[in-house]
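Worked example (supplementary).
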Amino acid sequence: MSAPAERSHLDEALLSWMHETPWTRDEERFRDLALAVFEFQFEHCPAYARFCQARGVSPKEIDTWEEIPPVPTGSFKEVRLACFPEAQTQKVFRTSGTSNEKRGELHLDRLDLYEASLEASLRHSVFPDLGLGERMTLRTLAPDIREAPDSSLSHMFQRAVEVFGDSSSGFDVLEGQLQANSLFAALDEACRTRAPVALCGTTFAFVHLLDALEKRDRPRFDLPPGSRVMETGGYKGRSREVPRKDLVAQIGEGLGIAPSRVLNQYGMTELGSQFYDSRFRQPEHPVRKVAPPWTRVRLVDPSNGRDCAEGEPGMIVILDLANVGSVSAIETADLGRRVEDGFEVLGRQAGAEERGCSIATDIMLGAAEPS
Amino acid sequence: MRGGEAVAAARTRLEKAGSELRQRPTAEILATLGRVLDGWGDPGSPWRQDLAAHLPAHTGFSLSTVRKGLAVGLDHWNGSVLEAVVKREIGDPARLDADGPAAITGFEHTACVLAGSIPMPTIQALLLPLALRSPVLAKTASRDDLTARAVAHSLAETDPGLGRCVEVVDFDSSDEEASARLLEAPCIVAMGSDATLSRLRQNVQPHQRWVGYGHRLSVAIKGARVPSDPWAERMALDIALWDQAGCLSPAAIYVVGNATDADESAASLANALEEAEKRWPRGDITTATAASIRIERDEARVRQGAGHDVRVLGEDSSPWTLVREDSARWRASPLHRFIRVHPVADAESCAAALRPLGPHLAAVALDAMAGEVPGFHRELAELGASRVVPAGRMQAPPFDWHHDGQPLLLPIARFCDRE
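After joint prediction of all chains, the assembly is encoded as:
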């Protein structure tokens, strides 16, 4: 099979899976597709192929998806991990960072797969109550794609507004500043019409929102039932840090949105898929991140590469078939633990255990890196 | 007792002990401190042996690493080194008693915020204020509540009056009340991360004396003509001790020469690290550290796969990792026996590579043949290094080392000039 035909075959199989509802977790289907995607990536991404060969792994030698060697997310800063010629690049998403820092890059030669994955997850986890074609007001606490053209998060929010948002939807961050007036006007309108609203944005933007609410000389919002919050991305030093429990409580106080309606997303620029809290779909179960059917998440003991027992902390390793044009097996810098059929993110905990006096040398030297 | 109450009670006890201390002649106190230092410098002393026996369980270091670390760090400490520091910074010790043209005194008490779990900085931090007759209120490091108590015990055993002049408190750093009471001290010596020091300093008033020891790192430089094997053995000791977690541990190595020189040095060092592991095994590491090490190894392998001239030495199961880099560009290290070897063409390139690290630089292990890096000592001093030593001596700072480039007693002393 030629490269384009081989790729097209994989894309169609994935698109078809992403469009299916309800989600079905089919181990054999995943295994077959994962091994085919690995074979394609091994064939067309030379840097990845050499990495795998150095690990003693090639497509002919493995028969389970767990054996596919993962690359660290940091490698996307150093190497173009793509399975197509640079000239065919349609989009490059970049990790956040300053102009002095190297930024991770996800190169895409087509966006439909990326968008099908994110739409399926949004529909499944964030908007499970919206029927096909139904919309709601979606206010976004992040810059739009004109301001942040290489941000995968802005791209995702743009698609969310296009697919799920009504005419009152929009973006409420401009040039890095929360546009409290436009946002509060939209929230006032939602309170008046009793039409639920979805607030989606970065975690630090929600802290800015809470600060703006503090300064507002009016009663707190009491948003209508069905309203919800989706936050992601952590603080990244862009706001004061508020423990998540407090953040959720303060959102409840300020906006009238119950903690059970605040959803966290775990995602990263290097991945084509995202992972959402299970709380909207399975409120009676422990909250955990849910992996879409075309992904698998392993919690790995980093000292030997074996899967951790349920509840044990391990390194989060993801196989995301939506990354078909790049590398699908990703080793993250995050720790997590398995919870029922999903996982919980414990964070990076970098330096937490350092026992010498050069605590967090790695963090410090991000700043010392020559430009 | 809550943290805040414990700190307040300790301060009350120190007030009484401090007023008794200030009645005693300095010479007597220095002599007692000298005997305490003699004890810590003696490998056979029960204080040393007791600390060595218990530190591994508290810190995760292996017993043989702790023993070797204490031997390298303390064997050359003794009473006369304290005397030498007093002479260097104060002159005649009698100036601490006399009513001369410049009265030199310590503060009513000195608060020490300790960090990490390497004993030497703790021992020194607790003894120095006493030399100025300033009693000490020490907050233990979260990873080591042993050493400060061991020092207090050694003082009490040698001189009960002096023993009463050290109070050791434990509390969680989130205990704001305890922290606020501790930071009311007229003189504060704080160690820790830059973020910790910034947070603490926000609660310190301008009239209080503040001495902070924050983030530091050390590096090694090897000239191409320096024979690799003996150097590698000494370098491996510097890396192995305290599992590379100290500010005097090498975080990176720069080999002056070409890629072949770097390869040769890296190969020797890899062998030496393997040998060092047999004698001084790496201690426990957390899942987070193991994950960082795995990620950095794999990240280097991906770069290698992409055609970069990078090599990873050490098996996946090895407790040590060596990455021979393809350039002088600094890269973060997870430490815990993870070392990068960078090739640098010449001394000038090496200095350029180190320049961004300058504000954080502590020690540099410099091994070069005559003429290989002329004038480099001066250049390193200007960059910010406060120690230049040969490989193998990084973890053996003399008691009188200008810690982070500062005098030891002067920052915690008060001067009153009479005109």
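Two points are worth noting when inspecting this output. Chain A has ten helices and 16 strands. Confidence is low (pLDDT under 50) at residues 350-371 of chain A.
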